[in-house]
Write a structure and sequence with these properties.
single chain; Arc Repressor Mutant, subunit A; D-Maltodextrin-Binding Protein, domain 2; 9-stranded mixed β-sheet; two-stranded antiparallel ribbon; rod-shaped
Length: about 300
């Protein structure tokens, strides 16, 4: 036995208004269309559902029994349509994401890859930039979300949700003279040439403070680079430069570039998801957040 959701809706409207014509006006169809729907239902259940007369249409005893089931059917269909709409919304639309270079080889990109594969209706706009610029873009609603590193003592104006951790370490080529040592001090770095981010970088400022507080000469920067790109890492791997390198990047260069034993210069940072304060979360934003948190909680495969 098959019931049309439209026929059930027309039945409920006639039962509510007690008149086929008024029900037709309410649902925006012709009176014959409503009459045909009622006949289809009566033929399906095998009994009359309404008594028709000069003053309208009244439910029969069987019609009153059918009414409760019809209401449940209509509510279930409405819930099903809402669920389908929500699922479509989660899979379609535009998601504007900002990433720093530090986040561009981390879980955020892997989550975006999953979303692109499994959501054919997704349109993705991705911006790569510095943390401060991305924070401003999110705050001004030019981006929906951004994933950036956050350092101790550094504040953002946007809301922050921690989604991972990383450590920036001093590193050098695997056969660097300092790499043979089991322990090092700041004094051992006095003659080194450094690869560092710009002076505006939080990591560089924190390392400079450590040298200053210890009364040691400031690092001599030979290579200044906004990001530890493949080119910058290649220079560290092939020269005696030492550099500030995220642990996530070091893993990709294992065997060619190694961390030096300088725990006093390790800078811990937290990857955070930036969103505009009191922003309305779209289904795609929420999906990106949830998948990112699931990915970070997932045990690493070794």
């Amino acid at each position: 036995m098959h019931f049309s959701p439209a026929d059930i809706a027309y039945f409920l409207e006639v039962a509510r208004r007690g008149h086929v014509g008024r029900a037709a006006d309410a649902v925006g169809v012709t009176q014959p269309a409503v009459s045909k729907a009622i006949r289809r239902l009566e033929e399906a259940v095998g009994v009359a559902l309404f008594e028709r007369g000069a003053h309208g249409a009244r439910l029969t005893a069987e019609g009153r029994l059918f009414l409760e089931s019809a209401r449940r059917f209509d509510a279930g269909h409405a819930e099903l349509m809402r669920s389908a709409s929500e699922l479509r919304a989660q899979h379609a639309g535009l998601l504007r994401v900002g990433l720093t270079n530090a986040a561009s080889d981390g879980p955020a990109v892997r989550v975006l890859s999953d979303m692109v594969r499994h959501r054919p209706g997704l349109r993705l706009s991705m911006a790569i930039g510095k943390s401060d610029a991305l924070n401003t873009a999110v705050e001004q609603a030019e981006l929906d979300v951004a994933v950036v590193p956050s350092y101790p003592g550094i504040a953002f104006s946007c809301d922050q949700l921690p989604v991972g951790e990383d450590t920036v370490r001093v590193a050098a080529r695997a056969h660097h003279p300092l790499a043979r040592r089991s322990a090092l001090t700041l004094a051992d770095l006095a003659d080194c040439a450094w690869a560092m981010p710009s002076r505006q970088s939080a990591a560089r400022r924190l390392v400079a403070q450590i040298f200053e507080q210890a009364g040691a000469p400031a690092p001599r920067v030979t290579l200044e680079t906004d990001y530890m790109t493949e080119a910058a890492m290649g220079l560290i791997a092939s020269t005696d430069l030492v550099g500030l390198v995220p642990a996530s990047t070091l893993r990709a260069w294992q065997g060619r570039v190694e961390a030096l034993p300088l725990p006093m210069l390790e800078v811990r940072r937290t990857l955070v998801l930036l969103t505009r304060p009191q922003a309305a979360w779209s289904p795609l934003m929420a999906a990106f957040r949830d998948l990112l948190q699931q990915h970070v909680r997932r045990p690493a495969v070794r």
